[in-house]
Specification:
Structural class: mainly alpha
Number of domains: 2
Number of strands: 0
Strand content: under 5%
Low-confidence stretches: none
Mean pLDDT: 89
Distance between the termini: 22 Å
Radius of gyration: 15 Å
Largest sheet: none
Shape: globular
Number of helices: 5
Length: about 100
């Protein structure tokens, strides 16, 4: 049984609202995004912590909903690796766990 089946999900409404707002911002095709770097950093940091904790408790999950392109997924993965000064070799070691 996953943690979300044990009790109500305290983040369901927040996740839905965040997804809606991000989709609105990303859908705008009128130049640079009007989102600050710190906002992106806070969202990704919180997501990384949540994903790590959830996967420790419930096991591996597919973290992405349909619609995320391979390019977007790899771009995020590369950004995460660079932010912690990791390289593809380090990733291969972790991936084999």
């Amino acid at each position: 049984m996953s943690p979300s089946e044990a009790r109500p999900d305290p983040l369901a409404d927040v996740a839905a609202e965040l997804e809606r707002r991000v989709e609105e911002v990303v859908a705008r095709d009128d130049g640079p995004l009007d989102v600050g770097e710190e906002s992106v950093r806070r969202i990704v940091t919180a997501s990384a912590r949540l994903f790590a904790r959830y996967s420790e408790a419930a096991g591996p999950i597919d973290p992405l909903r349909p619609g995320v392109s391979p390019t977007e997924a790899v771009d995020l993965a590369c950004g995460l690796l660079r932010s912690r000064d990791l390289n593809p070799f380090d990733l291969a070691l972790w991936f084999s766990r």
